[in-house]
Amino acid sequence: MNLRRDVFQALADPTRRAILLLVASQAMTAGAIAANFDTARPTVSKHLHILTECELLRQEQTGREIYYHINAQKMKEVADFIEPFRQLWDDRFNKLEAIMKNYQANP
Amino acid sequence: MEPKTKVHAENGKQELVITREFELPLELLFKAHVEPDLVEQWMGTKVLKLEPKKHGSWQFETTDPKGNKHGFNGVFHEFVTNRKITRTFEMESAPFGAQLEFLEFERLTDHTSKLTMHVVYRSVGIRDQVLQLPFAKGINMAHNRLQETVKNALYHDKAQ
Fold this sequence. Notes:
Chain A is of the alpha+beta class. Chain A has one domain (3-80): Winged helix-like DNA-binding domain superfamily/Winged helix DNA-binding domain (Arc Repressor Mutant, subunit A, Orthogonal Bundle). Chain A has helices at residues 3-12, 14-25, 30-34, 41-53, 72-79, 83-105, and strands at residues 28-29, 57-62, 65-70. In chain A, strands 1-3-2 form a three-stranded antiparallel beta sheet. Chain B has an eight-stranded antiparallel beta sheet with strand order 1-2-8-7-6-5-4-3.
């Protein structure tokens, strides 16, 4: 599974970015978030689901309500623009290591 | 867990350093940089030319999913077996010009080794642009996928 790409997909949508900005200032319920958008409530729910799925948001139950919080750790990870570059080299070097281990075993 | 591959890029500098420790003997790590068929496998590129010697040159070519070919080339300035490679690297389809790369190979134990890649760019701006390429690509891929998703969703809504 390519979680990274999923995070980028999540961030590529303007509505989802707006949701993150909203929730960044305070934890909110789905209803309160939806009230800020013209889009239909199920559409907002879908966005929340995607954001939660890739861990940019996390849910917390408070009484009967579910509040959405921002996952600062994940946001920081994504905002680090060097990370995809590092990942690219890490993937290459992992491949190098695997290929050469195999080569060592079957020269 | 600490990541195996590290990238050190200080703000406002036109260079960066990539380090990686391998569970491989030094000789094998070096070999992976010399043998064309091995380079092809881990770099995911076609090796058109690779002359592993001082003043030798190299030429790679990759094909993207759309079938477009991208060329890369450079020359070797130093080529010392199991120790170091100094080379230039240039992306033919990008306006960044050549970058200078110092690769140092170190033996850690009989079974482990370390690679240090010191890369120098022409300017701070170019370094930052190169650093952001994979980031931008990620965003673009996301956009393309999102467009597909939206198109499908629209179609689906109309069908209902």
